[in-house]
Amino acid sequence: MATGTSDDLDVRRLSGSLGAEVRGVALGRATADDAATIRSLLLEHMVLFFPDQHLDADEHLAFGRLFGELEAHPNLDLARERPEFFELRAVDGTGGVADEWHSDISCQQHPSKISILQAKVVPEVGGDTMWANACKAYDELSAPLRELCDGLTAYHNAAPHLAPEKGWIHPVVRVHPETGRRSLFVNEHFTRRIVELSEAESDLLLGHLTRWIQQPRFTVRYRWAAGTVAMWDNRCTQHHVLNDFVGERVVQRVTVMGDEPESAVPLPRWEPHGSRTATFWRDTEMRRKLKTQQAATPAS
């Protein structure tokens, strides 16, 4: 059933920083008009929760495709019928648990844009997920620190997924392509170091920024129920699973392909620190420019 506008839905804010619970739409039968309404709500609230949906795999995939091209997870086994649809299982905190703060797949040139996850089985106790508002975290930095961060880049890689060779350099502060807001784009899971700083300086600033964004005043915490669907904007949020649960936890997810993060100011503002980092930075820039040129060249 089409929603028409957000006024037709029951939308309840969950915290002062981000998050809303939405009722009044069946995601398994969602239309393009529904998707436009939901996209508007997502830009406003950053993470949305839809209770009592109980989507099957085909419905989940169809709903995700309303928001763009879906992508497979680059660090999981994709030898299955639907590589864009994957399931994570964990028991008593052991298994597929994303228990560090992160923005999905920030180690790629084009990190994930929107993630859409459904809880299929919830544990007896615990297993909540938290999200943080990366725009608010940026806004509340002091002006001098915001200016410094605007001009920095950071190296992200997939070392936590046993693939350290998969990595990319992104701005520390990215600009949301739809809202224009700036947000911190470093996280404790994928971000290894700040390119323009020495190792000691990078550890100090990166540690401060990743702890800063985790403050409770920037976050929302959600208690799952089976059949609840969550969708979040990875361009302006981070999330973290509380690995405190007792029992089985099964979630299913599809992910909308992202775009390359844009910086708040022209980069590079400063040279990379150290020859090894500088070499990688130049290599990454060359690969990025080459792919851009290839995409712009008409096929013969």
Automatic annotation (TrEMBL):
Keywords: Dioxygenase, Iron, Metal-binding, Oxidoreductase. InterPro entries: AtsK-like (IPR051323), TauD-like_sf (IPR042098), TauD/TfdA-like (IPR003819). The keyword Acyltransferase does not apply. One of its GO terms (cellular component) is cytoplasm. Residues 11-255 form the TauD/TfdA-like domain. The keyword Oxidoreductase applies. SUPFAM superfamilies: Clavaminate synthase-like. GO terms for molecular function: 2-oxoglutarate-dependent dioxygenase activity; metal ion binding. Belongs to the TfdA dioxygenase family. This is Unannotated protein.
